[in-house]
Amino acid sequence: MTALPSTPAALRTCLQKVETALGGAPNDMPLLLEQARCLHKLGQAWRARGAYLAVLSRDRYHCEAMLGLAELYIASGEFAAAQTVLLEAVVRHSTSVATHSTLGTVFLEQDDLAAAGSAFMAALQLNPLHRRAWCGLA
Question: Interior CA angle at 42 toward 5 and 80, to 5°?
Fold first, then answer.
């Protein structure tokens, strides 16, 4: 995974290049994912959601697409939808610290402190220095 540009102008340029390339290769998974990531970072949630779903329609358990979609759900307050995606993600990607930590965040938002603690502890077992998990336990 490459880092996305940090400025809105550079992100728009990146998105334009990706979407131009997708015109000739609409099934190119890395390009679809790059499009989703750019849209997400630009704050275009509905378009990003569609792009993540396009990735997931081709690879149902793509970890980064599952996480991105869950983060969009969280941002819009759709915690049950985020939880559904993340519960599947932790099963399919059990070594992903981000899936466990993000699931912990969802449980916190739903006031399920026991489940949140378990999810954050699972993240810390994978990476004892994971800051987001430590913050979730605090």
Answer: 120
Residue 84 tokens, joined: 């559904």
- Structure tokens of 4? 């996305």
Give the dihedral sign, CA 5/72/112/102: negative
For residue range 23-69, list pLDDT tens digits in order: 655 567 888 888 888 888 888 898 899 889 989 998 999 999 999 99
Helices (H), 1-138: 8-24, 29-41, 45-58, 63-75, 79-92, 97-109, 113-126, 131-137
Integer Cα distance of 116 and 120 in angstroms: 6
* Distance from C-alpha of 24 to C-alpha of 106, rounded to nearest angstrom: 38
